[in-house]
Design a protein that fits this description.
The protein is an alpha/beta fold and 265 residues long. It contains eight helices and seven strands; from the N terminus they run αβααβββαβααβαβα. The longest helix has 23 residues. Keywords: Signal.
Length: 265
Amino acid sequence: MVMAFLLAAFAAPLVHSGIATAPHHQAGTRQALPPLANGTALRIMPLGASITWGQASSDGNGYRGVLRTMLTSGGNPVNMVGTQQHGSMPDNDVEGWPGYVIDQVFAKANSSVPAWKPNVILVNAGTNDCSQNKSIDRAGERMLAMLEHLFDMSPRATIVLSSLIINKNATVEDRVLNVNDQYREVAAGLKAKGRRLVFAEMHGGDGPQVADMSDDTHPNDRGYQKMAVLWYNALATADRGGLLVAPEPVDGVPDDGGAKKKGRG
């Protein structure tokens, strides 16, 4: 079982109900994970707002640094792509926009996704809709519109849609629960249509908990590590389902997995 392998390979104390752990060095070595999709190149666009950007993480990498290490340890070349750069990791491209609601994230994706044609898009968006109380009952509609357009703009993409993580503000948390129910319905509908989509459940026992939050909204480093593991697990699920395919060649966008890949930026 993939989860059991991850637990054995990365034995750090980030385990809940069999969840994989974050990678770490032991005795100067790193155990390798199996490659996903026979080691195909992963051109990954992390898409969202401040959590995607990595706000409140000590190195600015958020979940991206740990996730990239997990993927490359198995032999997958990884190029993180996006119009922004944030964090200490060399390959720190990201499409994360602090404070943005779903529609604003969608607007940014409209230009960035066609430019890079990612074959993996990690979507975590909607927390700001909740904090701003923006048409909560229609958040799922807005997310669906964005996801459908992402598939149209990058037909080889596998999208991982995450539920929103917990919020320590009780009023906002009630909205988060509402939005997450909508997202689960959106994900089920898209999967039923045969879209390459996986849902990553991050609002639960395996996701960030109250102790893993730096403030009401953003994870601390431990919380981001948990998110990284859940993204990885979702990609492993996509692999088992045969959803991951090679990225579309784009002039000037390398996929050889070097440490610093700026796409066409």
